[in-house]
Each structure stands twice: as C-alpha cells, then as structure tokens.
Amino acid sequence: MYIDPLATKSLTMSYHKLKVAVIGAGAGGLCAARQLLSRPQTFAPPVVYELSDCVGGTWVYTDRVGKDDNGLPIHSSMYRDLRTNLPKEVMPFPDFPFDTQLPSFIHHTDVKSYLEQYTDSFKIQPHIKFRTYVELLNPVFGTTGDAQNTWEVTCLNLNSHCRSRDRFDSVIICNGHYSDPFIPHIPEIEHFKGQKMHSHEYRFAEPFTGKNLVLLGAGPSGTDIALELCPVANQVVLIHNNLPISSQLPPNFLQVKGVNRFSETGVICDDGMEYPADVFMFCTGYNYSFPFLKDVDLKVKDYRVTPLYKHIVHTTFPTLFFIGLCQTVCPFPLFHNQVLFALASLDGTHKLPPKAEMDMLTEEEYQSSLHHGIPHRHFHKLDSLQWSYMDELAHLSKTEPIPPVTRDLYEANAKIRKQDLCNYKRFNYKIVSHDMWTTVEPKPL
Ligand code: FAD
Question: May I ask which residue range the UniProt record assigns to the signal sequence (predicted)?
Fold first, then answer.
C-alpha cells in the first residue's frame, strides 16, 4: 500500500500535533529529539525509546563483551583507549560546539560527556524511556480508508518485564549500525585453532601481549586497533585490499593482500605465504540490522537498504525515517541534516515526491553510482559525496547548510591521516571563520 505524503501535511494542519517516536538515544536519536522539541507548534514532545540506562549509544564504553544482563547483545563497539579519528572541530552538531579547551582528537569519554551536555541543554532527558527495548514496529491502517497510517511501537520494559504499546504518526529510527558484526566466509576456518574475534569485541591491548595477531580489514577500526596493538604484540599483520598504506608504520606491522584460507595455526594469503596467528580479528564492519521491523517491507541486500529515498525515507511509508545509515561521513553534522530533512517532510516544508518518483530518482542515483565504479555495497558510503548530499538536504528542508570549513578541515584531516597514520592525532586545529581553519602548534600526546 502506498501512503500519500501529502496526507501528512493535512494531518499537521488539521487537528493535532504530530506524535513522533524515536528509537535510540545515541547521537542520532538525541538530535532527532532536540529538533522535535524545538518545534512545539507542530510536534508533540517526542518519545525516545532507549534500551540502555543512559544516552550516548556507541560512545558508552563497557569492558563487557557478548551479552548484557538482559541477554541482549552488547551494543557498543567502543574500546578503552579510543580517541576520535576526526578532530572535534568538525564533529559537533552545528548548533552545539565541543568545549574549546579540549584537544582536537578527544577520548571517547569526552564525546559521551558532550552528548550528555547536549541532552541537558535541550532538556531531552524527560522524554527518554530508558531500559525500554523496542521489539516491534508495525504500521496500523484505519478501517475508513485513511490515506495515512499510524505506527504501533511495542516495547519491553527491561525493569518490569512488562510490554506496552504506543501509537505514533511517525517514527525516526536511530538504532545505530555498529553493533551487529559482519563476518565474511573464509575457507577452512574450522581448522584454525587460534582465537577468532570481531573488532566489536576488542576492548584493550594488554591481553594480546607477545602474540601474533592477524587483522582483516583496514577501515578506521582495523587500522586504529592494529596500531594500538603494535606496542604490545609480537607481530601485527593487517590483511586488506588497498595496499599499501603509504604512511610510516611500526616495524612489527605488516600489510598483506587477500586472505585465501585458514590453516591450523594461521592464515594463508594470496601471496602463498602462511602468517602465524594466535588471534585472528575480523575488522570487517557491521550489518544493518532492524530486528523490530518484521512487518515492514525493508530489504537489506549486500549492505544496501531499500526502498529508501535520500538514504532516509521509506518510500512506501514516508512517515518512517532512518537516520545514520550513510557511511564514511562526518556523522553528527550528517545526522543533523537528515533529521531536519525528515522533519521538513513531515511538517510540509518539503513536499516529498510520490513513491514512484522517489523510487525512480533513487534508482537513477544508484545506477549512476554503479556507472562511476562505486560497487553496489558502497551505495550508502558517501565519502566526498557527503557534502553535496548534506547541502541538498539543507536546501530541501530550507535550513542552513553546513559551513564550508567543516568540509575543508574534514578533507584535510583525511589527507594528513593517510600520510601519517601514526601521528595525525598529534595536531590541534582551530576554526577561524565559517570558511577558514588553522593548525595550532602540534602538542605531544
Ligand atoms: P548509536 O550511537 O549506536 O546509538 C543507537 C542507540 O539505539 C543505542 O543507544 C542503542 O542502545 C539504542 N537501540 C538500538 N536498538 C534499540 C531498540 N530495539 N530499542 C531501544 N533502543 C535501541 N564518529 C565520529 O564522529 N567520530 C569518531 O571518531 C568516531 N569513531 C568511532 C569509533 C568506533 C569504534 C565506532 C563504532 C564508531 C565511531 N564513530 C565516530 C561513529 C559513531 O557511531 C557515530 O558518531 C554515532 O555515535 C552513531 O550514533 P547513532 O545514534 O547512529 O547510533
């Protein structure tokens, strides 16, 4: 069934304020709640469902791995000594800067504090239902042929173990996408006698002292964890396909292309060599996972989520929004723009095209990205396209675009990181104006 997005507008104008649910109180969910609260004429105060007992999502570090006390998988992939790979000057929501006293590359606890301050400043906390796990999200259709469906959220209170159901006009899904480890098939894995793990379970380096480690995948976590392990490990082998990382690297850090199969004691790579491994770590990313969407037509095929318009709007149900699916981006500014676009389409500031047109435009964009050599599974990986994407969202929602200095410093940091992976976090930056940044004297770590 197709829902006419125009019906949303008449809904807002006619008889009541829109009731919006937000799933998750990580950065994405907090941003959605803050923006909803700032539009009290149009939106009723939101209900934010959060399964844990605090805000911050990814940024809530725990030593634990596996399952939590409720038998749910541990959500956060944060490790103890992580410092951000983006300078704090580009990371914040545009309406809430980080403390200027902090260095540019901050510890994860500083990001958590920042999100707590954001929550306090915009008085979001009273609207969050903590320890409340969303089990099911279903569209509900009226019997009188209403064009507009509502949404029923079924949730489990993890304290009382009681279930409850609430109705909403719209739902913004911000459940995070760094929790459900993706583990590729590698032949003969069953023969390997060493320890296998995913970077999701990595917490700190000490248990790996003196060991031979093989890591698969050179994304931000793979490279960062490999470098963190080098000072304690005997040898760290990073297997990846973008050889070589041209930066200067520690002497016990090797790079190898293509894992071929496991042996009992290590892995055999495309060069025919066997690399011994006490531990093999998959740094191979995460699956998109929406376990509560059982009755909504949503396909996740090889990292692409459909049917979505602008990576956000479900085209069959244009009151259902997904925040934060895009990868290789500047997350908080991107969430900000995505949320404003979602709210603009709900309050009628931006009229969404009909479903057929949204699907057609998305298909055109997908075909064009294939044509430009971007593989299917990287459709949500925006990289340098993120800036025009965010500008477009801002234009459509009639809001302020992200200042050019964010893009310039983000891109400069990417370049410096590539040149000097071991030392790029020594730099400190300062924003001078909306289109100018400067390097402050590098400080020793
Ligand atoms: P999350 O932070 O994952 O929040 C999702 C929330 O939803 C969680 O609180 C979870 O408990 C809740 N939830 C999930 N399912 C349910 C349910 N069914 N019911 C109720 N609640 C639910 N970004 C940067 O900007 N800079 C960095 O340096 C950086 N480093 C990173 C390092 C690592 C190791 C990782 C994993 C990510 C990093 N990121 C970084 C990206 C980071 O994930 C984003 O910045 C951002 O915090 C993601 O926010 P989110 O709201 O999308 O998801």
Answer: none
Residue 52 Cβ < 6 Å to ligand 1: yes
For ligand 1, atom 43: residue with the closest CA: 58
pLDDT of residue 148: 79
Q: How far apart are CA 49 and CA 28, in angstroms?
A: 12
181 in contact with ligand 1, CB cutoff 6 A: no
Q: What is the pLDDT of residues 380-411, one digit of tens each?
A: 999 999 999 999 999 999 999 999 999 999 99
CA angle 357, 358, 359 (to 5 degrees): 90
Pocket flag, ligand 1, residue 85 (CB < 6 Å): yes
Q: Which residues of 207-230 are buried (b: 16+ CB within 10 A; e: fewer)?
A: ebeebbbbbbbbeebbbbbbbbbb
Find out if CATH 3.40.1170.60 is the number for domain 189-282.
no
Helix axes 27-37, 331-347, angle to 10 degrees: 40
CB 81 within 8 A of CB 96: no
- ipTM over cut 0.85: yes
Q: Which residues contact 244 (CB under 8 A, 6 or more apart)?
A: 255
Residue whose CA is closest, atom 49 of ligand 1? 27
Please write the tens of the pLDDT for every residue from 193-207.
Answer: 999 999 999 999 999
Binding site membership of 289 for ligand 1 (Cβ less than 6 Å): no
Residue 140 CA, ligand 1 centroid: distance in Å: 29
Does residue 26 line the site of ligand 1, with CB under 6 A? yes
Nearest residue by C-alpha to atom 8 in ligand 1:
57
CA of 336 from ligand 1 middle (Å) equals: 14
> From the centroid of its chain, how far is CA 200?
14
Burial class of residue 5 (count of CB atoms within 10 Å of its CB; 0-12, 13-18, 19+) = buried
Q: Can 20-179+286-402 and 189-282 be said to share one CATH topology?
A: yes
- Residue 104 Cβ < 6 Å to ligand 1: no
Structural fold of domain 20-179+286-402:
FAD/NAD(P)-binding domain (3.50.50)
User: What spacing in Å lies between the alpha carbon of 93 and ligand 1's midpoint?
Assistant: 15
Q: What is the CA radius of gyration of the chain?
A: 23
Could you tell me the residue ranges of all domains in the chain?
A: 20-179+286-402, 189-282, 405-440
Q: Please compute, for residue 440, the number of CA atoms within 13 A of its CA located in the half-sphere on the CB side.
A: 17
Taking the C-alpha atoms of residue 25 and residue 51, their distance in angstroms, rounded to an integer, is 9
Closest C-alpha to 236, from 245, 223, 247: 223
